[in-house]
Design goal:
By secondary structure, this protein is mainly β. It has two domains: 16-81, no CATH class; 108-202, gp9 (Jelly Rolls, Sandwich), CATH 2.60.120. The protein contains one helix and 16 strands. It is rod-shaped, with a radius of gyration of 32 Å.
């Protein structure tokens, strides 16, 4: 067997640094391998965490994209999208909204019961029964200023006082300065908007 002498390996003394799970990167002019608590990988749950900013010059692809907060000034998306997963979710837009191609659809509730408390997400109530029907609309202060609501008699019959649609405002609120409003006759309808305080107005 031959004899072997010492072998010198450059930078063999430089070990990786940083907290457990830190992703290593070169740092300094001497090329130390280091890590940061702001860029870690949890190898037990396969979860990559970046606490800070990221600049991407290429394309970012994700199977699921969950945005918590964004300051993006322009969003260009092709295909269908969904915002929220519940009818009571609220999405606020500051500024104008333009629908260049397509239509706007709001929540429609087909009412067949004799009474109904209008939900905050309802926009159109279609009354589809011939009996006396009582409807309680939500508080103007809850739904906010500019909220609109349409109530329409969809049943093909003339409504008398005994079979009217009786609409009531919340306690202490009004519909055109009255606490109640009734619909009777042939296919009547009511369109109202909220002042965001305590009043609904017919328009």
């Amino acid at each position: 067997m031959g004899k072997f002498g010492w072998a010198h390996i450059t930078d063999a003394h430089k070990s990786a640094r940083g907290p457990d799970g830190a992703i290593q990167f070169a740092t300094g002019s001497e090329g130390f391998q280091s890590g940061s608590h702001k860029l870690t990988f949890d190898y037990t749950s396969d979860f990559l965490v970046l606490s800070g900013n990221m600049n991407i010059s290429g394309t970012l692809r994700a199977n699921v994209f969950d945005v918590i907060t964004t300051t993006k000034t322009e969003m260009d998306i092709s295909g269908s999208t969904n915002f929220g997963d519940d009818k009571d979710d609220t999405h606020a837009f500051t500024g104008s909204v333009s629908i260049v191609s397509g239509g706007l659809r709001t929540n429609y509730h087909k009412l067949t019961a004799a009474s109904y408390n209008v939900a905050t997400h309802d926009s159109i109530i279609g009354v589809s029964s011939s009996v006396y029907t009582s409807i309680l609309i939500p508080s103007a202060s809850v739904v906010g200023a500019g909220r609109t609501l349409i109530i329409k008699d969809e049943f093909n019959t003339t409504r008398t006082d005994a079979t009217q649609i009786a609409i009531s405002a919340s306690t202490g609120e009004t519909i055109d300065h009255n606490s109640t409003y009734s619909l009777s006759g042939d296919s009547p309808a009511l369109s109202i908007y909220s002042d965001g305080i305590s009043k609904w107005f017919i328009y």
